[in-house]
Design a protein that fits this description.
Four copies of one chain form a homotetramer. The first copy, chain A, is α/β, with parallel strands linked by helices. Chain A is built from 13 helices and 15 strands. Helix content of chain A is 39%, strand content 24%. The longest helix of chain A is centred in the last third of the chain and has 20 residues. At the A-D interface, strand 7, strand 8, strand 9 and strand 10 of A face strand 7, strand 8, strand 9 and strand 10 of D.
């Protein structure tokens, strides 16, 4: 039974806690949050202890940490966990700053502890099936990848201000998806963005609608479209066009119901947001992490995104920002 | 170039005329209609002559007739055409009365002229593909057939009165479909009906909503649902469940457009009615008929429904009527 | 916190146990099974006690029982639970014999304890949405209901022998669905069946393929098709045709993936069987039961099937058997 | 009855001839082709005359010309037709050279004759419905347009050599679609391309796989993906993401058939190529052109692409070529 300490008792932290509760091979041992009330409430619901950061890292019974606290705490927590030899699953981004992110990866590597980032979409059953189908080669070489990713509604302007911007905060997921699907590092990044959804986002210096094109050494191309607005649910789709066919992941909905009336056939909107769409993905990602900690995982870590891979997606996001400013294709 | 005489310049007759115009190997030579104005108008549009029935059958240049006049004229016209050795494509039903229908088939057989009924659904591309897929055997033995057939709106009550009733007028198409798909004559017919759409239909002694079950010697079963009302277009679907899978024909729509809004994803209603849904089917059926007349067809007459087969569907319709009255399964 | 005793530690019992573990308001207090090893294994996994039947009913801390043991134990357990004033959720059927089933309902009614049957499909999100949409009346009066229900593979012949036959064992779910959707008791039942899947089923005196038609006083009709074989997964579909439109529930699949190749577009088969298809339904059904026990439910018991309703579906199943033998429509 | 002269008796010319044959208000009067045999064969089939270019333009009975001959003849024929005051429907491109294309537009404008380009996709029923839905404003402002356009197989290398390259030959259709949907002239064009399908295309100096991004003054963005290879048919799709929803046009297929087996549900591939996909579009485009010539059309010419608009798409194609070379966003 693995003992896991959770940093951060917010929305994502609670998902991890609930998923730990469903595991026969791991338990939530401790919860750390700067808000003691939030920590206590979550800890009590799961029979866990509440701890300060220092107490947590002094606890010799821990096997792993899950970091779901605010981004500015990631580097410090990763470093401390690495120091203690604890396996780490950290929510993205590692850091908004590429150098500090690199430092986090380095410290984990030096300590020899596994460090993974919570790019949970890799564990979405549909995306995973597309990935595996393409990797198994039955469709031939990848030619073009098309990723559609649209949030249902823009975040509050104050979130935007500290989010690192659309490319590091939102598109980072799609850039990781592109990396994971492509299986090669893009060589060029072109980006364009505009503010069409909420003027406050533009005032905060960010965009809310963006298109990115990635190029690669093999000639494979990838297009990504992002928007902070989507009327019909959380739009998360993928198409991988290969020499011999296409593999596609469509949106899911709450039920399989269709209503036929004089106006036509109405099926349901896409699931509302990531909590619903990626419910299974969070559960499977945790399973993969536990498998790694228990030494039951192969060379691909069950598909978990390594710290090293997280640096690559951050570099792509940074290149996208430069491209949007320069109007030219940039190297990541 | 085959010379074809058309009896009946109504809605169906005009379809045949237009389809003849698109053929390089046949032409509309003459039009006969009790309404001279209708005959003239259609004949002029296609460079054809107008004829009386007697004139038509005195014309030695004719090769074939298409009978799209009212049902009560079918027997007389079939007999005269058979007498003249002309190939016959007759709109359904051959006759509402089983004995007269049998007599029509007999006269054509005696004369050795080909007699086909306009069960055009056999030429619908989707139904044809289901049929061929099942016949080719890749799905194994047929177990259950399910036919859904719903008209968009009830016909006028006076039409109902002379239509022969739902089973002979509307379900006859589905009974023919069942025969064609099954490839064996059903041994039992159960029917139930109610009047849910238009009380005038009930007052005319008919039903507007019906369910029929067919049984067969091999144990294969068939269910048919009919309604004279359908809000979302003309509902014409088929499923053939076999030992190793199912073949299904869905409805078609005008375009492939989908609108996604907060309410969900809206695709288009089914095509409005038979003119739209079976546009291709009429064209292909005519082609099959011309091929037969030109001696370019195989033993299956390109899938055309023979007079003999039309008698079988009439017998099934009659058995359905008896079953609705008796409450028991009836032999056809 | 409700204390629930579970009778039966088999496949269905384990589902209930796992779902209880996910509830904040109820707990699995005890497990009873004739196989002590099975009881102990399940009880230990959930921190529950193992009990004999007598011990269980002597336990004054229990609030409710879930009966998932073999059908022949249902009557005795329902009676004992009713005697002790415990709320009852019993897997279907109440009993294969209509009189004993009636006796179970009577004893619960006399004792004033709530008795519900595990017709879990009422809690399938898609079927529930169809039901609610139709009930809310936006589509007008129900005209025709069509239920497709096909198991992936036939059960072992020895199961068939003690199952009560296809109508009481398998179609009973669809008959309950028909009752629940129709909102009125059918007045006529027609059934036909054949043995197309496994000759051993026929030798056991049962059928494996059946079609049933229900008629009603309002004229609404219902058709049900059942098969013990289905190549493409567990086929569980519903269409409710109303005056102003249709509400349809389609099958679900594991992912939303589509592969496009020269052969066409391939989407996934239906979910394999009831454990996968009705995973959510079991969870929601348990929630509704707990709500009833806690007095937080309305007059419709959250949609749970009452013992009284279970008798109706049993009567429909019995009428279907009589109809298959008599070849005529039978009164339930 | 309009008299139309057709230049070019090739594949596209024959489509126009057949569509003219189906019109009650226009006729194919003459056919001109450098291959006299091709001209004669087509003319005879439709009761038209064969003419040389000079004879054709000397014929005072003509009302309009359709130019479907090779691209290098377009300018001369447009000029001559304009000189004679004849309405012109010209297959795309007007010319591969922007200056000569401009000259063609100028000469038609000076002569006051209507000049339209055969951007037939505007008349595809699905694309038209998306266009009209978006224009009617019910979905709010356009944010992002996504166009997928993939040919089933690469053209012969010698065609590629004289085609003007992927952007002027193939993507020109998508650029026109973008213009037509956007309703505003893009301000920036980014393009990337690679040769993944046929090395001979690369040797001819062209690409066979390309991604283009268009930006605009309003901030709306458009992405276009093109490939000369597509295993699953002719992939022609469109999504227009707006503030309040999305309008989407999917591919069409030959039938609505679905096969369900253990491997899943197989529906048909997309229609094979443009002759099948745009059959209706060609017919409707011709109708719109005839309406214009007969003075029965509104200010939008029924949606026909004007010569002026054709220049815009050519300018976008030229900018895409420049961008692919420069690696930066270019002004059209």
């Amino acid at each position: 039974m693995l003992n896991v300490c959770l940093f951060g008792a917010g929305r994502i932290g609670r998902i991890h806690a609930a998923n730990l509760a469903g595991r026969p091979d791991a338990r939530l041992a401790a919860v750390v949050d700067i808000n003691p009330q939030a920590a206590r409430s979550l800890a009590e619901a799961h029979g866990a202890a509440t701890r300060t950061v220092d107490e947590a890292f002094a606890d010799a019974t821990l096997d792993a940490v899950i970091i779901a606290s605010s981004t500015d705490t990631h580097h410090e927590l990763v470093s401390a966990a690495a120091d203690r030899g604890l396996a780490i699953l950290c929510e993205k981004p590692l850091d908004l700053d590429l150098e500090r992110a690199q430092a986090s990866v380095d410290v984990a590597a030096s300590a020899g502890v596994p460090l993974f980032l919570g790019f949970n979409r890799r564990f979405d059953p549909s995306f995973r099936r597309v990935h595996d189908t393409v990797r198994q080669g039955g469709l031939g070489k990848i030619e073009v990848i098309s990723i559609t990713s649209r949030d249902p509604a823009p975040p509050p302007a104050d979130y935007v201000a500290r989010s690192g911007g659309l490319f590091r905060d939102m598109m980072i997921h799609d850039l990781d998806m592109a990396l994971w699907m492509l299986g090669e590092l893009p060589t060029g990044v072109f980006a364009t963005g505009s503010c069409l959804v909420d003027p406050a986002i533009g005032e905060a210096g960010d965009v809310d609608t963006a298109t990115v094109v990635l190029t690669s050494a093999t000639g494979a191309q990838c297009q990504i479209t992002n928007s902070r607005r989507c009327a019909y649910g959380y739009d998360q789709r993928l198409e991988v066009f290969c020499a011999d066919g296409v593999a596609r992941a469509d949106n899911d909905s709450e039920t399989r119901t269709v209503l036929g009336t004089a106006g036509g056939f109405l099926s349901e909107p896409a699931l509302p947001f990531f909590l619903e769409r990626y419910e299974q993905a969070y559960r499977r990602q945790l399973g993969a992490f536990i498998d790694v900690v228990r030494g039951q995982s192969g060379a691909d870590h069950g598909g978990l995104a390594t710290g090293q891979e997280a640096l690559l997606s951050l570099r792509l996001a940074a290149a996208a920002e430069r491209s949007m400013a320069s109007g030219r294709i940039e190297s990541p």
